[in-house]
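Request: Could I get any protein with tokenized structure?
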Amino acid sequence: MSSPLRTQAEYWLQQTLGAQASFRDGQWEAIESLAAHRQRLLVVQRTGWGKSLVYFMATRLLRAQGAGVTILISPLLSLMRNQIDSAAQWGLRAATINSANADDHPAIERDLLNGEIDLLLISPERLANDRFQAQVWSTLRHRVGLLVVDEAHCISDWGHDFRPNYRRIMNLLTEIPLQTPVIGTTATANDRVVKDVAEILGAGIHIQRGSLTRESLSLYVYPDPLDAATRLTLLSHLLHSIPGSGIIYCTTTRDCRLVADWLKAGGLNVKPYFADVEAIEAEDRAELERQLMHNQVKALVSSVALGM
């Protein structure tokens, strides 16, 4: 028999995703762990499984019970922008504090302290900012209803994308109220990293692991190095033959611009994306991300700035 909490969650799920929607294996169990049992949880599931659905739904259930704001720590600026829109679909008032919206910080901080925001997305570096710590976190930490650590492998010294300020999360766990539910999420963690992250997130943590295989992806490896001309010809062929939009990653800004220019000369609607693209190319990063998400460009030729 469904609990009242699950009945409410399924109602919101179907309101948002349609009458036939149902939770995937493990999603409700993760939500229940947070919203009903106030546990600490590490979820290791493939990209696309629905980890954000878990903490969005848990946030809505917790807020309905009178809990405080959800703090979502994320290293991905582009993902923050996308998740603001996603949170709104789930009936949540979400805001982000990051380097790209400095003019909005005072209003957002005021709304936070007034309890008018359900979910705050923030980078570990911004959370560690001295002014934010003194003027906002010192009060806000007493009101946290749920702590979410996205890309939780970054906590680990063994993680492939180590971010030093993620280590501050160990201190945060001692600063928020006792029995505050905590969830770490990742699709990138081997056994050693999972063990390390679980130890950092604290005693009694529950670990949920699923298959990381994504059947929608096809992987190809070329065993021998290809010269630049061959790589560019191959890229052009793939972009002309594969439907939809995608990302081409390059190691440097110079390569992003060169590859994008070459592909554009071949009639392909591609654009470069890198940290200084707004200054150099007069392109707005958020608008480029929107165009990619809506298949309005064939590809973004990007540095690691797309995702960081």
